[in-house]
Amino acid sequence: MITAENPIVSVIIVTYNSQDELAACLDSLERQSIACEVFVVDNASVDATPTIIQQFAARFSGVYPIFNEKNIGLAAANNQPLHRCRGDYVLILNPDTVLEPDTLLQLASYLDQRSEIGVVGPKFHFDDGSPHTSYHYNWSFWNILLWRTVPYVILRALYDRFARYPEAEVFFVSGACLMIRRQLFEALGGYDKNYFLCVEDAADLCLRARKKGYRTVFYPKARIIHITGRSREGINYFARVLNYNGCLYYLQKHYGAAPSAGIWMVLLSSSLIKAGFNWMLGMLVPSRHQFSTIYAVLVRDLLSGRLLRADLSQNIGQVIADDLVLRTKQ
Question: How many domains does the chain have?
């Protein structure tokens, strides 16, 4: 249940134009069997999300809204309530999720009983009940090479098809639903704010927790529904830039210049090939020209060194401007 009185779990939800899924997420938190407080951080949504947040804050004293004047990114927004959290545990939660009534209890009890574990994640299901993977056993050069070059739809389908879901120690669990000890989260300083929106923010967090002597575990007895994320249609320049920047920064930070340079070369080669392929295909299918243009801009960004900048997420205005220009051409 959501309450301001003695919360066991502090939930942090970051929203951006999340009007279609946020209410269901918050309703599922109210149905939890243990006490939780909820911080909803809105990254300058332009839809009805702020209104929904205000409505829930009026209904529940344990819902605390934070409204940002601009989109500061997922990692930085997740850090904003950090020093206001009072629960023993912090749950990082996406708004496109729905928790089962005992999810918080399952995760918190698991950490209660195992002091060596710092981070735990549940099993994810799509809204049709089929499971999908929400953990990785490693995240280094070869993993990033695979996920950044193979089409996402193909790789996700294969990964979900052949995945197994035993309770296990893993490298990291998905940041869409991740529970961490509050004292550990504080000691780490929260997320690295240089990640704007990419999978590496959670990988980085779990890796830093490991360096402090804590394990990360995938715990399938706890379950959530992940409403979106099944597929990605077309090519999104904004997301692609942030993913490229995130993986390059992550490799540079944790593994050094050589792996980061290697992935940079792969991304450059891949973008060049895709730009040329889509340009030729555009002679038959005109709509493919827009994909060629996007990949050409990505080539420009890679060659300029722009995507190697650790502070890209803090200077996101030009990326947003480029994304708007590309969208008007579609």
Answer: 2
Q: What is the pTM of this model?
A: 0.91
In a domain, 231, yes or no: no
pLDDT digits (tens, 9 = 90+) for 286-304: 878 888 888 898 999 899 8
Query: Using an 8 Å Cβ cutoff, are 168 and 181 in contact?
Result: no
Whether 197 contacts 74, CB under 8 Å: yes
At which of 173, 203, 226 does a domain end? 226
Q: Terminal CA-to-CA distance of the chain, rounded, Å?
A: 45
Separation CA 9–CA 182 (nearest Å): 9
Quick one: which H or E segment has residue 178?
A: strand 177-181
CA 18 to chain centre: 14
- Alpha carbon 186 to its chain centroid, in Å, reads 19
Instruction: Indicate whether 135 belongs to any domain.
Output: yes
Q: How many residues does the chain have?
A: 330
Token pair, residue 232, equals: 């990605």
Which residue range forms the structural domain that includes residue 60? 9-226
